[in-house]
Amino acid sequence: MHLHNRFVLFVAIILSHFITASAFADERPNIVFIFSDDHAVNAISAYGSRLADVAPTPSIDQLAKEGAVFFNSFCGNSICGPSRATILTGKHSHKNGFMRNGNKFDASQWTVAKALQAGGYNTAIIGKWHLSSDPVGFDFWEVLPGQGSYYNPVFIQMDGQRQRFEGYATDLTTDKALAWLDSRDKAKPFFLMCQHKAPHRTFAPPLRFLDAFDDVEIPEPENLFDSYANRSGTLAMNEMEIDRHFDWAYDAKVRKDERGDVVLPKPDRYGTPEYNRMTPEQKKTWDDHFGPHNQQFLREFASGDMSHEDVVRWKYQRYMRNYLGTVKAVDENVGRVLDYLDENELSENTVVIYSSDQGFFLGEHGWYDKRWMFEESFKMPFLIRWPGVIKPGSKPMELIQNIDYAPTFLEIAGLDTPDEVQGESIVPIFDGAVKGWRRSLYYTYYELGEHAVPQHFGVRTDRHKLIYFPKTDEWNLFDLKRDPAEMKSVFDSPVYRRVRESMVAEFKRLRKQYDAPPFPGQ
Ligand code: SGN
Ligand code: CA
């Protein structure tokens, strides 16, 4: 902790014992952490991807313009609950015990929320939580059960009651966050986690944005039709392809009762749970939008003129329009929070962060979903605005990871980070002159089964990535400069012998540094 911060905190604590709250206010910065679920950096225009022109995100981009956008920000385990547990604890999954989505978070352990609360912050979490046990360390919480729903969602209240609200989850989460800001203890600085369900599967946009992308053709990634050659054999075993696994009614929104005699190919296993939640008026708006598009598609499909690739391309367009519609609502709601801070003269002394629990495949490798250590799902968006501290328009290239969030929040708050925390505060990067920053990141994925992604572990430097698949005992090595789309492993190439040796050594070093357990089954 900076000496200055330590002094401010010391004075704040001493004074608060003698002076009433109205006479003395703790001036440490507020922290607003806006977090979404499965938001790929490629769907944020500040990152400048192929989608930047067709799907701009002006409010999230405002954080980049007025602060920093981190281009090399990553998770430690590309799945929801584990990423959230890492953010709260500053530790990799094997240390905080939350390795898979099915786990229950051990709420008795140290978390950054508890530390901020004990350190004088007013703390709240609203929206998606997904850690099974109740939130601890928050003065206020109101969270979605499990994955939550998009339309007319239920929120769990602090007394355990479940209450259903009419509306759209992203709007409601923001409404509740702003209401909490109004009612908070204004003598204290605040830490607010505003966490959206969107743009998670089943990619259901607010009704006002159903047609937002109707008139644009969404650019395809070059590897929409990946053959999975030249890499681990486990890639071809995946169950997350737009082609073979994107469900017709559930994901592509072509309901069974709309199809007449037309028989669509597999997969067609699930129903339409989000549609079923809607009021009759909401359903009508939905049907007025999707009905004519679906009929046109079904006619074309039935005519036999569509090739297999044409059908995949149609599904990709349908997927992206819906995904980007949910993102548009997230962006709009980020704007509402920024406006609130302006209107209440809070912007100057509030650090605002936008991030998401991991990345997502937007058709790259033919996929939706995440989990793999490949760039699209390994990356986490990270944009941060801190007026007077971060130079507007900064584009840091340091390798940061979700283990770093807890120590960063604590340094912002002028509080100490316990030694057991594995991440580093990124505050020194804000000066633009950090020396000796980490040179590599450790990755783990422990789930067994869903979407058929195998357990794997790896290391990434600024140039190379090494992945180990224990079940098949395979190693992949990627040269991210020559092969940014990760289409060919060079692990066995003699040209890469030196790189391979140094990456394997770095992997071992990191596993030791983070006190990693043996690989599963070994
Ligand atoms: C659900 C989804 C999966 C998704 C996981 C994990 N299926 O199970 O597609 O990979 O969540 O997502 S769904 O039918 O329920 O939509 S995570 O973000 O929670 O980790
Ligand atoms: Ca997620």
Low-confidence spans: 19-23
Q: In what range is the share of β-strand residues?
A: 5-15%
Order of helices and strands: HEHEEHHHEEEEHEHHHEHEEHEEEEH
CATH homology-level superfamily of the largest domain: Alkaline Phosphatase, subunit A
Q: What is the fold named in CATH at topology level of the largest domain?
A: Alkaline Phosphatase, subunit A
Helix content: 25-40%
The main sheet comes to: 7 strands, mixed
Computed structural class: alpha/beta
> Helix tally?
12
Spatial arrangement of strands, main beta sheet: 2-10-9-1-8-4-5
Q: How many domains in all? A: 3
Q: Quick check: average pLDDT?
A: 95
Q: What is the rounded distance between the termini? A: 40 Å
Relevant terms:
522 residues, alpha/beta, Alkaline Phosphatase, subunit A, Arylsulfatase, C-terminal domain, seven-stranded mixed sheet, four-stranded antiparallel sheet, 30% helix, 13% strand, binds 2-deoxy-6-O-sulfo-2-(sulfoamino)-alpha-D-glucopyranose, binds calcium ion
Question: How would you briefly describe this protein structure?
Answer:
The protein is of the alpha/beta class and 522 residues long.
